[in-house]
Amino acid sequence: MPEPASFPYSPSYEQACDRLIAMCNGDARSTIKALILANEYLEIELSELRTKASHLGVSARQARARRDRA
Fold first, then answer.
1. Which pTM does this prediction carry?
2. Residue 2: strand, helix, or coil
3. Does the pLDDT value for residue 56 go beyond 90?
4. Could you give phi then psi for residue 23, rounded to 5 degrees?
5. Which residues contact 21 (CB under 8 A, 6 or more apart)?
6. 31-50 as b/e, with b when 16 or more CB fall inside 10 Å?
7. Residue 24 near residue 30 (C-beta atoms within 8 A)
8. How far apart, in whole angstroms, are the C-alpha atoms of residue 70 and residue 55?
9. With contact defined as beta carbons under 8 Å apart, do 20 and 31 qualify?
10. DSSP assignments along 7-59, one per residue
């Protein structure tokens, strides 16, 4: 059986968990749903940032190619 993943312990993680659970009135299901929603938002934001970075990279390569041809 594989070992469970270990995460670095941080008191701030414990505090953040406690705050999130309290914000969800102690309801575990609501807390998990909030975390899933936050994760989906961050995944979308990361995807948008990767797209922008890719476009910037293409623009930079095109500008460099134009400059090298001149």
1. 0.64
2. coil
3. no
4. -65, -25
5. 28, 31
6. beeeeeeeeeeeeeeeeeee
7. yes
8. 23
9. yes
10. ----HHHHHHHHHHHHHTTT-HHHHHHHHHHHHHHHHHHHHHHHHHHHHHHHH
pLDDT tens digits for 1-51? 677 777 777 889 999 999 999 999 999 999 999 999 999 999 999 999 999
**CA–CA gap between residue 22 and residue 24 (Å, rounded):** 5
| pLDDT for the residue 1 | 63
Q: Which among 10, 38, 11, 12 has a CA at the least distance from the CA of 24?
A: 38
Contact (CB, 8 A) for 44 and 54: no
Residue 20 and residue 34 in contact, taking contact as beta carbons nearer than 8 Å:
yes
- Angle 28-69/11-23 helices, nearest 10 degrees? 120
